[in-house]
Amino acid sequence: MPEPVSAPLSDSAGDQSHPLHASDRDTVDRLLAAEHPANEHLVDAARLLMRYDGFPGASDLQEDLARALRLWGLDRDALHARTRAIWTAGYRPGLAPPEEAVGSGFDTSDSDSP
Questions:
Q1: I want to staple 46 with a disulfide (CB 3.0 to 4.6 A). Which of 34, 83, 102, 106 is the partner?
Q2: pLDDT tens-digit profile, the chain (114 residues)
Q3: Alpha-helical regions (H) of 20-100
Q4: Under a CB-based contact definition with an 8 Å cutoff, are residues 86 and 73 in contact?
């Protein structure tokens, strides 16, 4: 039985293939779909820009990250300023802000009425 073919580490032009390209492609596609970026989008964009900065390959991701910034009306400096503020304010990936309680907080089970 033939061996499965793995993704090449580089293509014919000498560009390297990043091992996280597939998962990063999904993230970049999500970023491109965001008309008004949330904190998570901004943090992911900054993280991926840092990851691929100077990387000899993944030009599709690099171009789409630049396009997302243009769509949001940001440049790299503005993005990094905003993400620094996001981190300073206590943002942590995967932690949703606490939900606000609804109602008065009165516990009806302690009530004397039937």
A1: 83
A2: 444 444 444 444 568 899 999 999 999 999 999 999 999 999 999 999 999 999 999 999 999 999 999 999 999 999 999 999 999 999 998 776 555 556 555 555 555 555
A3: 21-33, 39-52, 59-72, 76-88
A4: no
Domain ranges of the chain: 21-90
User: Helix 39-52 crosses helix 21-33 at what angle (to 10 degrees)?
Assistant: 140
Q: 87 and 97 in contact (C-beta within 8 Å)? A: no
For residue 20, give the nearest of 52, 63, 44, 56 by alpha carbon: 52
CA distance 88 to 100: 22
**Token reading at 88:** 């300073």
Separation CA 99–CA 82 (nearest Å) = 24
Single-letter residue type at 101? A
pTM over 0.85: no
